[in-house]
């Protein structure tokens, strides 16, 4: 028996049916070629699907909230999988911990309604990007999730430029275009803070992100933060009709997916219907 189609509800449980299970997981993306399964490459999805298939002795397919690029980390990634109805869902994280490599872990496994879809019922995704602009660079113990920036950065300039990007826009200047995919997104949060350790952290939230969008936004903002570009420059790129060659994509290892929000169970089906519609500019 194989898993149900990844974006359709699980078949009703009973008589050997399937149940939908939400997986909350995290990973150090350093040694992964991103989330999506790729031939002859080590990916998060590939490792997890192989481990799940080993536990249940049948091929299983995961659907994820957001596909992360090579080198990007996650502390709050969400995926779903359809499992046999008799599965011990509560015990799954412990069983997987005996198989999975140390750089990926499933923290929780929870049975959810059939209408839950890790991708299409998500309300928003939350990322953080860490930048150290100290003269000595990043703390050695955080070097894998924090980039070192060679020049001082202005928190005020970063914050002012970020505020101008909020709202629903066509972010094609900041995205690697994919055939048939829209680049219209609602950027709901983009704030910068400087911690006691001196590290700058960008908190970025949106209903969804297109390919390389967060890292491109950060790259553009860092140019403002160090004084090479004016505060209104990143927002001016929103008028572009194609990807901007003037934007440098920030390195992947500073980025971490920290949380994904979902609606209440009774609103899952409605949310999935809305998300599947192609976004149009308002």
UniProtKB/TrEMBL annotation:
EC identifiers of the protein: 5.4.99.12
UniProt cross-references to CDD domains, sorted A to Z: PseudoU_synth_EcTruA
UniProt binding sites for substrate: 127
Residues the record marks as active site: 69 (nucleophile)
Pfam families in the cross-refs: PseudoU_synth_1
Catalytic reactions of this protein: uridine(38/39/40) in tRNA = pseudouridine(38/39/40) in tRNA
Keywords: Isomerase, tRNA processing
GO molecular function annotations of the record: tRNA pseudouridine(38-40) synthase activity
Domain Pseudouridine synthase I TruA alpha/beta: 27-120, 161-263
Transmembrane segment boundaries: none
Subunit structure: Homodimer.
Family classification: Belongs to the tRNA pseudouridine synthase TruA family.
Biological function: Formation of pseudouridine at positions 38, 39 and 40 in the anticodon stem and loop of transfer RNAs.
Name of the protein described by the UniProt record: tRNA pseudouridine synthase A
Higher taxonomy: Bacteria, Bacillati, Actinomycetota, Actinomycetes, Pseudonocardiales
Gene that encodes it: truA
């Amino acid at each position: 028996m194989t898993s149900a189609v990844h974006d359709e509800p699980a078949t009703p449980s009973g008589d050997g049916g399937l149940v939908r299970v939400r997986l909350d997981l995290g990973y150090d993306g350093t040694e992964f070629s991103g989330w999506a399964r790729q031939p002859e490459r080590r990916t998060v999805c590939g490792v997890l699907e192989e481990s799940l298939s080993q536990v249940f002795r049948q091929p299983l397919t995961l659907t994820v909230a957001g596909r992360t690029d090579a080198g990007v980390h996650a502390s709050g990634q969400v995926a779903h999988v359809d499992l046999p109805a008799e599965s011990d869902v509560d015990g799954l994280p412990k069983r997987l911990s005996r198989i999975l490599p140390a750089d990926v872990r499933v923290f929780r496994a929870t049975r959810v309604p059939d209408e839950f879809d890790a991708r299409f019922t998500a309300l928003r995704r939350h990322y953080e990007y860490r930048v150290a602009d100290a003269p000595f660079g990043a703390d050695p113990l955080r070097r894998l999730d924090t980039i070192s920036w060679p020049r001082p950065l202005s928190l005020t300039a970063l914050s002012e430029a970020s505020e101008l990007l909020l709202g629903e826009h066509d972010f094609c200047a900041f995205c690697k275009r994919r055939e048939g995919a829209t680049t219209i997104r609602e950027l709901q949060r983009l704030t910068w803070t400087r911690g006691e350790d001196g590290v700058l952290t960008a908190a970025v939230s949106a209903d969804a992100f297109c390919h390389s969008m967060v890292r491109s936004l950060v790259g553009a903002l860092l140019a403002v933060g160090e004084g090479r570009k004016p505060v209104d420059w990143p927002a001016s790129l929103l008028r572009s009709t194609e990807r901007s060659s003037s934007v440098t994509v920030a390195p992947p290892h500073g980025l971490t997916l920290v949380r994904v929000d979902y609606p209440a169970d009774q609103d899952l089906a409605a949310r999935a219907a809305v998300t599947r519609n192609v976004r149009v500019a308002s």
